[in-house]
Predict the structure.
Amino acid sequence: MRAEDSATNTTAIAAAQPNGGTAGEPRAPRRIRRGGAAGTAPRHGGTVQAALGVVAFSLTFPATAWGLEGFGPWSLVAVRSALAAVIAGGCLLALRIPLPPRPHRAGLAVVAAGVVLGFPLLTTLALQTSTTAHAAVVVGLLPLTTAVFSAVRVGARPSRTFWLAALAGAAAVIAFTVQQSGGALTGADAYLFGALLICAAGYTEGGRLARVMPGWQVIGWALVLCLPLSVPGALIALSHEPVHLTVHAVAGVLWVAAGSQFLGLVVWYRGMAAVGIPRASQLQLAQPLLTLVWSVLLLGEHLTPAAPLTAAAVLVCIAVTQRTRS
């Protein structure tokens, strides 16, 4: 994580010809690539970073369920945002990062509204009455929704094969997660579908910004931007909602703050900038299945025999989307 680590630092430098030449004779510029994230990192590295982000996100719902054992929903969201902002702000101050350019600030506001406030709040409210398995429906639809948003916002035009594989993967995940929850829709669905839309917008805008500024700064400034809301919100919520500090509650809050809200988004945005928003978003097809695994290990939930079959189908879809041109 460096101050000069840019997503696209490709600079054209006119290099002198070894055989000289007459004064004023045009020289063909030679492109020299400098260290950066998206523009210079190998595509494989970008895929690995995006996958690490997916692993971090897959723990979000179980960690949130743990956090709700000791915190109210509003307290949990405000505290996680404030803690993550302290971590991000400390990194920005330590590296003396200047304020983002004015043209990027509107995009950062979208990221803040989508992934810092909107998605955490709506999913936390949903998880009061919904199981993590049912909430995973949101994550199953998120890759497809993010691809649609990116097509509209940044002009991405994936191939027909890409869309067919994405739709097939989303259908497999939706069928599995709905089956896990018994096929019944709950009052939490409005929260979940709202979270789906606002998070897709935040992911798309963050991926676009990560092409022109380091991914960790994208989420870092978005978190800092929310401090005027998260700190007073945390103080008000904590004074009105009961708090019972347990090992699970503290661990859950720390993970969603440091892991999901900051570190996970750092590698996620770097990965999206490297491999493209549509391609990276399809890696999230594996997230619901990972979430269900964590739900079994951490929350004691039970899976049906359909899990390995769905996992195989999702992995095939991911392989197809990763091979198609985006």
Notes: Confidence is low (pLDDT under 50) at residues 2-41. Strands lie at 10-13, 30-33. The first strand starts at residue 10 and ends at 13.
